[in-house]
Amino acid sequence: MEVRTNRAPAFDSPAWPVGVLVVGIWVFWAAAGGGVTPTVWGLIGVGLVLLLGLALALPAPIGLGRLRGASLAALAAFVAWSFLSLLWADVPGDAWEGADKTLLYAACFSAFALWPWSDRSVTATLALFAGSIAMLGAVTLGRAAFAADPSGFVREGGRFVEPVDYANANVALWTSALWPAVYLASSRNLPAPLRAAFLAAAGLLLELSVLGQSRGWLLVLPVAAASFVVLSRQRLRVMLGLALSGLATLAVISPLLAVFERSDAGEPLAGLLDRAAVFILISCLCLGAAGWAWAFLDSRVELDRRAHRVAGTSAVLLVLLAAIAGVGVGIARVESPGGWIREQWDEFTTSYVESDEGTSRFTDTLSGDRYQQWQVAWQEFRDHPVAGIGADNFAVPYLLRRADNLHEPRYPHSTPLRILSQLGVVGAALFAAFCAGAITLAWRRRSRSDPVAGGAAAAALTVFVYWLLHGSVDVFWEVPALAGAAFGMLGLAGAALPRGPAPLPWPRRKRAPRWIVRAGLAAGVLAATASLALPWLSSTYTDASGGIWRHDPDVAYERLALAADLNPLSASPLVIDASIALERGELDRARNALREALGREPKSWYAAFQLAMVGVMAGDFPTADVWITRAQELNPRDPVVEIAKRMIRLRLPLDPSLLNRLYRDAENRHSVDYILNEYFGRKRFTLSDS
């Protein structure tokens, strides 16, 4: 097999400035809560598309080749199919946003896949990504440790949730940067100070991941680490880097776990975080010293092939023995392994089981809503196998199919089930074709480069592999900071070498005139820009109305009307307009806005619910009964809807503002009896349908 060594300067790639800006976008999204909402990803997405369009206007430095062209074509078709799903989606506004995110991820991939990248350019990009995320983690941890009230950084009983406002996604952010950091720490081509810094960064990222206490991460991490080792060209070095960062984490595991365990038991959070931050700092300093010593030995000790083979074999045997010992200890600690497995399965398939106070979340109950979400997503795929239900259109069928009222997810906790249920077999086949082509390109680059440079491609590929593995049991597609980085790193892993073998050309055909190509490119960029800008502007105006409606309702109404015009598929601005009108007693305005909202989203249970409130306030109980019945048909498990329905049929007084507050405070996740006792004084009247 031909091995190529590329010694070009680090910044010789024509796409290097584009790549730097794209990595900066990922870091910005990460710092801004993961970039989940259109108000965050919209404007930045417009800039990304315009930047890519400007770069595409330059002369192409290489031919695409058949495999790269096929992979990009499959990705473009997948994006187009996501947009087509607006035609059959129950909530087209959500489908539009979902398709826009897919467009952004395709742009991230293309920014790296369309141009050649030297080995040093790839390494520099990995260093920029890993270093930026590690710096973000250090700054965030420092802010939390020095905060007078660190509760904003730790939620859900003691889980570290900043900067991404979702603990599991926060953990995935740190772990995504772990693989490049370990590769850079183990690379002989880097100076000793950089290697020491990146080994310390790897320890920091791993320890921050522990603070997030994600059980899915704990299960996926060994698989992702094994994949990283297998993909790497210098496996012994990677194993040593992983081992050093892992041992440092184990050395400080007690104060890390104590943040969750003891805060859950009632200890002050500030002291626990301070202690954890101090131990993390000490472990990172020790790792930095170890990285410097490693680099020093590398410059003076050269192992021959036989010594490498013996050391590698010994390392693999040690890992296997440790795994076997761990399994043995686990089996010995339970009376009946089979019974324990059945117990864990029963917990996993149960929506809620009371957890033990003061225990690690890693060993706590597995109960939750994932199993029910996966069931619903699979049922939707079976009912709509070809085209799916539309991008990001999970909320409506979930409310119809759920067995309890404890959870209201908008997305299934699984990327594969998201694609299958929402885009059907067609979307899944297109995505699989894209992944197969892109991963093959990454494998080719890994194999054709020298071992050190091949490791860079492997590290970039592992970022995508980890995202896909962990995202199979969590909601990561909807977090641009994670998905954008995963797609971009996949493109970087398979980027062409500047002086690599010439790609196989497409069959010779008569080319279209250059002006037609440029016109088509300009039209595509303009369409993509409009698609991203309109939902962003609509969401921005919608959010802006919330802070002013009490003292200047006319301006709020104007902004909501503009938001509704900018996004003619979304009912959200109209529902908010109606909610403000209800608070102000403007019943005709509220009624008209809600009917228009239902015209856009006929299965909006909340719009039907609000129309019932309009009927109550107008004294039109028959109409209110019709709409509350419709709301219950769309959301049959909701206790507040049930209470409102009974009270409407008994002609009892209702306070719409109180009912809306119950939704804002998530009180609708309690039982009917609890809500009646706490908010309605049940002893004053008897509710029945008689």
Quick overview of this protein structure:
The protein is built from 27 helices and two strands. It has 690 residues and is mainly alpha-helical.
Features:
two-stranded antiparallel sheet; disordered N terminus; mainly alpha; Serine Threonine Protein Phosphatase 5, Tetratricopeptide repeat; 690 residues; 3 domains
Question: What can you tell me about this protein's structure?
Answer:
The protein is mostly helical. The chain folds into three domains: 16-302 and 357-493, no CATH class; 304-356; 523-684, Alpha Horseshoe (Serine Threonine Protein Phosphatase 5, Tetratricopeptide repeat). The chain has 27 helices and two strands. It has helices spanning 16-31, 38-56, 66-84, 92-113, 119-146, 167-186, 192-212, 215-231, 235-251, 253-264, 269-298, 305-332, 337-348, 370-383, 395-401, 415-448, 451-471, 480-493, 514-546, 553-566, 572-583, 587-600, 605-617, 621-634, 639-649, 656-664, 672-680; strands spanning 154-155, 159-160. It has a two-stranded antiparallel sheet with strand order 1-2. A hairpin with a 3-residue loop joins strand 1 (154-155) and strand 2 (159-160). Helix 1 runs antiparallel to helix 18, helix 6 (167-186) runs antiparallel to helix 17 and helix 23 packs antiparallel against helix 24.
Task: Report Rg.
Answer: 27 Å
Low-confidence region ranges: 1-10, 500-508
Counting DSSP E segments of at least 2 residues, the number of strands comes to: 2
Q: Estimate what percentage of residues fall within beta strands.
A: under 5%
Helical content class:
55-70%
> Biggest sheet, strands in spatial order?
1-2
What is the terminal-to-terminal distance? 82 Å
Number of domains: 3
